[in-house]
Amino acid sequence: MNYTENYKGIKLDVQSVNLDISDSEQAEIRSAIDKISRFANVINAVDVYFKHEGTGKDITNVVGMRVGVPGPDVFAEDKGMDEHWKVLLKSVTDKVIRQLQKLK
């Protein structure tokens, strides 16, 4: 499932490989953008991806986020066995915020 939207003037592109992103997960992504926008003056785009790696019992969930800001883009990724994407999304959001704080 892929979807694109304009959220508060930010181009949001979400990609998920063989997964459906629920409305509650979409709301979590928007909440993460709200949190990130407090640490960046201008955000042009946010790309988020969700995917599974591995097979059988060794499946790992992966969440990645690229935040397009003036200058170099900020990217973070996290992997985990947790079935809940929300935990991984929060971790990625925190990593992006730390990078944005270093850029200031």
UniProtKB/TrEMBL annotation:
Highest taxon listed in the record's lineage: Bacteria
Pfam families tied to this protein: Ribosomal_S30AE
Protein name: 30S ribosomal protein S30
Taxonomic source organism: Rhodonellum psychrophilum GCM71 = DSM 17998
Lineage, highest ranks first: Bacteria, Pseudomonadati, Bacteroidota, Cytophagia, Cytophagales
